[in-house]
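To whoever picks this up:

The nightly regression suite flagged Malonate decarboxylase acyl carrier protein as changed. Nothing in the input moved, so I suspect the structure step. Input below, exactly as stored in the fixture:
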Amino acid sequence: MEKLHFKYQATQPIDHPVHIGVVASGDLEVIMKPTDKKESELNIVTGSDGFKEVWQNVLTRFFDRYPLLADFEINDFGATPGVVNLRLTQAMEALKDEQ
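Regenerated output under the current build:
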């Protein structure tokens, strides 16, 4: 089990929490909450050790496209980078759907 922490500059605050996905084999959940901070903070708990650089690459690509300002909690159980990107995109889309 590894705990990772990342921060990203962001400009688009969210106005309500979002919860997408479940922690299950090969999957993950993403929880986004509004924040008063000046940058997004991500706390990740993953069952797959040694993938910090992969996480950073996926997250950098996401924040380059979607600079969402929020506190993120991600709980991972072996998701591939494609699934991580999918869940983050689903969370971003859920923000639009719930407005």
